[in-house]
Amino acid sequence: MVAALYRFFFIVCLAIIAAYIALHLFGSDWAIFTSAAILSIPLVYSYINLTRLKKLIQTDSVENISLPSGYWEEIYFGLHRLIKGLKQKIRIIEQQHDHFIEAFQASPNGIVMLDENDQIEWCNSIAERFFGLNFKRDALQRIHFLIRRPEFIQYFVKRNFEEPLLLERMGSSSSLSLMLQAFPFGQKRHILLIQNITDLQKADAMRRDFVANVSHEMRTPITVLMGFLETVQSLHLSKEQQDQYFEMMMSQAQRMKTLVEDLLTLANLESNALPAATNELQINTLMALVRNDAEALSQGKHSFTYGAESSQNILGDEREVLSAFSNLVSNAIRYTPDLGAINVKWSVNQEGQGEFSVSDTGPGIAPEHLSRLTERFYRVDRSRSRETGGTGLGLAIVKHIASRHQAQLLIESTPGIGSTFTLQFPMERLSTS
Questions:
Q1: What average pLDDT is seen over the chain?
Q2: DSSP character for 337?
Q3: What are the backbone angles phi and psi of residue 163, rounded to the nearest 5°?
Q4: Helix axes 2-25, 71-106, angle to 10 degrees
Q5: Residue 410: which residues within 8 A CB-CB, separation 6 or more?
Q6: How would you classify the pairing of strands 418-425 and 408-414?
């Protein structure tokens, strides 16, 4: 302020001196003109700088201005520093905002921000997919105008957000189960969090079915064992009858043992998601072991053909690969009638993939059953499977072993003709030596 007064007094004094000189040299008219000209210089200079400043503000170029001289230098410099600081703060806020948006977009859960009138302020792409929304189109629309499920509308009408809401049959294919809950924040605003629990529900249903199936599978042999034991305890039986009952009890005990072993094998496979080892397994040795097990199980009731069209060996875990091969062969034996034919073959196809295939002349499988054959305890013919000692877990075990060896299980079947089960190994699982 003091500097401005000094400048003002300096200009006034300069005008007075110039007017005094002009008065004595040229007369009063020149004196007035000279003093007015000197006094108008700062006004013209200020107007020029104001005009320049206006253009810079309109083009948002204040921070790039060249500083003038004099009093306007201080004004320009202060304005330049102020605007530069404000823009820096705005950039930081925008970066933070972008980071928050990126974090919300990366969330596996749906997020919808609602204002005090339940209008959509923002939503992420997951929420758009869950509810069929489009943020650019649906911004500032009431959420319950867009999601017209009665339970959802009732949830917002009651305003009881302490408990979550489950919505079934959501998504574009009506196959999603969504758990959502609204949380208050700010001034009467709410954030809606949506979680896809479809897989959790499926896993829970599978767990319930698994427990029910295991209980059912175990109940039958246990009931039979208890019946035989009660008979042996309460009745006086001959040695032949006792031997017969003990043989039946041993059969049921063996069935429970096999079931428990298969359950433990399946549990170990499911708990280990890592790829299997890459030990070189001699295909001739595997085929010989499979042949011994098959003939022991068949007891001469079937005819077998074995063939190894390639000498390439498998890279994998011997115990698991042998278990998969044996399960496929034992399934063929159980479901193929007596005197039926079973063909076991190892080959390498044109794409360089190894294929272990088991073909039988059994009753075949209807197409509607093929996609479910690898489910635990799923049986096409339950009575025949139990009669032959099947647990219903064999193909589930094969599927998990195949997954650990990056292989796939292929099933071809024609009702009345027979079935072919093929384990197809990728080139990386075959030895090059």
A1: 82
A2: P
A3: -110, 145
A4: 140
A5: 421, 422, 423, 424
A6: antiparallel
Reading across the β-sheet that carries 120-123, which strands appear in turn? 120-123, 110-114, 189-196, 176-185, 165-170
Average pLDDT over residues 335-351: 91
Taking the CB of residue 258, how many other CB atoms lie within 10 A of it? 14
Q: Which helix (H) or strand (E) is 201 found in, with range?
A: helix 198-234
Q: Which of 37-41, 235-239, 260-264 has the lowest mean pLDDT?
A: 37-41
Take residue 167 and report the two structure tokens written for it: 């919505």
- Report the run of H or E that residue 183 belongs to, with start and end: strand 176-185
| CA dist., res. 237 & res. 320, Å (int) | 45
pLDDT digits (tens, 9 = 90+) for 206-218: 777 777 777 777 7
The pair of three-digit structure tokens given for residue 403, joined into one six-digit string: 């997954």
Question: What spatial distance separates the first Cα and last Cα of the chain, rounded to whole Å?
Answer: 94
Q: Whole-structure pTM over 0.85, yes or no? A: no
pLDDT in tens, 135-186: 888 888 888 888 888 898 888 888 888 889 998 888 777 888 899 999 988 8
Residue 385 has pLDDT above 60, yes or no: no
82-109 b/e with 16+ CB inside 10 Å = b?
ebeeeeeeeeeeeeeeeeeeeebeeeeb
How distant, in Å, are the alpha carbons of 92, 100, 166, 423, 431 from that of 350? 60, 52, 51, 15, 16
Calpha distance 65→87 (Å, rounded):
15
Selected residue with higher pLDDT from 271 and 127 = 127
Residue 286 · residue 280 · CB < 8 Å: no
